Amino acid sequence: MLGGFLAQLLNGVQYGLLLFLISSGLTLVFGVMGVINLAHGSLFMLGAYLAFAVTGAALPLWLALPLAVAGGAVLGGVLERTLFRRFRTREHLDQVLLTFALILLFEEARAALFGNDFHGVPVPAALDFSVPVFGGFAYSAYRVAVLLGCLGVAALLFWGIERTKLGSAVRAAAEKPEMLQLLGLDAQRLHTLVFAAGTALAMLAGALAAPLYSVFPGMGDGFLIISFVVVVVGGVGSIAGAFWAAMLIGLVDTLGKAYLPGVAGLAVYALMAGVLLWRPAGLFGRA
Amino acid sequence: MSHQVIPALSRRALLGAAALAPLSAPALAQGAALKLGLMLPYSGTFAALGENITAAIEMYLAEKGGRLGGRAVQLVKLDDESDPSKAVQNVNRLLGRDGAQAMIGTVHSGVVLAMVQASREKGVPLIIPNAGNANATGELCAPSIFRTSFTNWQPAFGMGKALAAQGVKRAAWISWDYAAGREAGQGFEQGLKSGGAELVKSLWLPFPEANFQPLLAQVPGLGVQAVGSFFAGGGAVQFVKDYAAAGLKNSVPLCGSGFLTEGTLAAQGAAAEGVRTALHYGDGLDNAKNHAFRAAFKARTGREADVYAVQGYDAAQLLAVGLEATKGDIAAERALVTAMRAARIDSPRGAFTLSAQHNPVQNIYLRQATEGQNKVIGIAAPALADPGTGCRMASI
Predict the structure, then answer these.
(1) Which residues of A touch B107 (CB under 8 A)?
(2) What is the tally of structural domains in chain B?
(3) Pair A10, A134: CB distance under 8 Å
């Protein structure tokens, strides 16, 4: 029983780390630019289908990871310059309409390019083995690699946000936008960078997740909703908030599915409601 | 189904009937070809299934010189894309513009409901060559509706029964939480019970999520000797691979409805080796009809026959029984239905008859995935009939 519980904790941490990877980009874009990007889940899906396309062409999955990051950065930069820049000061409803339109466009593109099938993505041959964890349960080496990879990206993000000049500009923009002007920083350039980074993170998460969750139409929708929960619980614009909220939600969702299947769907939303009542700006948000 | 749809539907139905009227008069004349509508997926997820069903129907027609009951048969094909949102429109087109007088279709259980509804309203004979939803030969049963495939309940019942016969006392069930998964889960539980075994726990995942980890991590703690499951296609590939990667395959054997390993063995690779499933067909089934059928199908299409081809072939065979009894008159409903009901179909899967609800009473075979094939290793449940719960068959 204890072994089973530890295995579920590990599942929760692994799921939480992946959630962090997806929601870190969302919280940055939301916090720094004030833009609600509903298409963030579609960007995750794009990364997953990129991995599917790369492995489908008999190329190694490893190739999909830098491609997802580079492709995501370029796509994010272009989207910001052509569309999001014009919508930054518009009402949230306009932003929702814009990003909802993007969801439809991305889904149609996916249907045209890959059809509507549910596809598996093979695990890299070198990691196609399992290691025992707890209670007669094993983890595939690839799942362990994803866990470590997510931790690595999280460490890199923390370092970037806390220790670099660019990071302090991002924090300033998220907390006190007027500071940017005072410091003489180029807000437009920062927005392009943040949106490019957010898109790259979402697509990287998708590419990493594809062998674990398969690829299928609308796969980004579920991840989008849970990512918004992470952002709201953690506090908009806070990377540390997104990290701890993602871990919390990963654990609550996994343990809920395992031990209280009847109310598992509700558990994370009850958690969100509780956190918002207690701290309306989220765990790490500044009211 | 929302109620708002109904007025639009009947308006379409009227238009369809109006379009059909000028065609039906000459069609009744002796010697005119019978228009047999095939509404199947020729694109999308299930395209390969639709192609094999169609190829087998064409093969049977060719064997009979293009005539059933002395009447020439002309096929009218329509791609349903396995899209339920277009299903009503498609079936109206098939019966209206295309003038189909009988229908064979389809694969997707959401799409088949529109065909079932049309058959109930207009009395056009329908033979279902795949979709396994219980209600088509349950609550929605009708004299004009037949099926030559299976219900979701049947293979899962066979699997549960076979496990109990092997001495398994406690088993668990894992599936997506949708109609097919629930129907199969019910079959599995009843199959276990029939042999004195117990279903300890059912674990469900929302469709089509593929995060199986929280479910799989519970398996070692359940104290079960086997896990049964219902997944198909890409979901089955991911599930079988995750099950093996979780280190459970050797400690708690995985089994399930045959679709778990049907057409997916190449993608599942070593993870599927040894997995036992139950289905009404399998590889290496040793009977003369099967050998002849497989050889002829291979010669005609260049592909190996599969369960879908068998189901299509038998749909054509069943229609032939009806048309032979009426000498090709599709409108002689009473004689047609009476003959089809009493049919004994000499199928490549082994001969089968039909239940009172018009679903096959058939052997469910036990298979084991061996070197990329679902080898038949025994009979899980002989001459198994679906309970047909909820069917109140109208008289003819």
Answers:
(1) none
(2) 2
(3) yes
Q: Does B268 share its domain with B294?
A: no
Q: Identify the closest residue of chain B to A251 by CA–CA distance.
A: B214
CATH number at residue A247: 1.10.3470
The C-alpha atoms of residue B211 and residue B205 are separated, in whole angstroms, by 8
**Residue corresponding to tokens 């009894």:** B325
Same domain, B61 and B73: yes
Backbone torsion region of residue A36, taken as left when φ is above 0, otherwise alpha when ψ lies between -120 and 50, otherwise beta: beta
Handedness of CA B247, B250, B256, B258 (dihedral sign): positive
Domain that holds residue B269: 153-279
Residue B396 lies in a domain: no
**Burial per residue of B261-271, b for 16 or more beta-carbon CB atoms within 10 angstroms, e otherwise:** bbbbbebbeeb
Closest C-alpha among A192, A170, A135 to residue A240? A170
Structural domain count, chain A? 1
Q: Residue A215's closest CA among A63, A107, A73, A138?
A: A107
DSSP-derived 3-state class of residue A176? coil
Is residue B226 within 8 A of residue B199, CB to CB? The reply is: no
Which of A138, A213, A258 minimises the CB distance to B218? A258
Residue B174 lies in a domain: yes
Beta-bridge partners for B104 = B38, B127
Instruction: Using CB atoms, pick whichever of A212, A216, A255 lies closest to residue B208.
Output: A216
Shortest Cα distance from A113 to chain B (angstroms)?
12
Do B290 and B318 fall into the same domain? Answer: yes
Q: Which amino acid is at A139?
A: Y
Amino acid at B329: D
Q: Determine whether the interchain pair A3/B237 forms a contact, defined as Cβ–Cβ distance below 8 Å.
A: no
Q: How many CB pairs under 8 A join A and B?
A: 94
Cβ separation B209–A222 shorter than 8 A: yes
Question: Which residue type occupies A222?
Answer: G
Q: The CATH number of the domain where B136 resides is what?
A: 3.40.50.2300
Q: Given CA atoms B323, B279, B167, B220 in this order, what sign does their dihedral have?
A: negative
Supply the DSSP symbol for A215.
Answer: B
Structural domain including A44 reads 10-117+136-278
Instruction: Supply B298's token pair.
Output: 């291979």
pLDDT in tens, chain B (396 residues): 334 334 444 444 444 444 444 444 444 445 699 999 999 999 877 888 999 999 999 999 999 999 999 999 999 999 999 999 999 999 999 999 999 999 999 999 999 999 999 999 999 999 999 999 999 999 999 999 999 999 999 999 999 999 999 999 999 999 999 999 999 999 999 999 999 999 999 999 888 778 899 999 999 999 999 999 999 888 898 999 999 999 999 999 999 999 999 988 988 889 999 999 999 999 999 999 999 999 999 999 999 999 999 999 999 999 999 999 999 999 999 999 999 999 999 999 999 999 999 999 999 999 999 999 999 999 999 999 999 999 999 998
Q: What angle do CA B41, B15, B316 make, to 5 degrees?
A: 35
For the record, the structure tokens of B129 come out as 């060559």
ipTM tops 0.90: no
Q: Same domain, yes or no, for B158 and B266?
A: yes
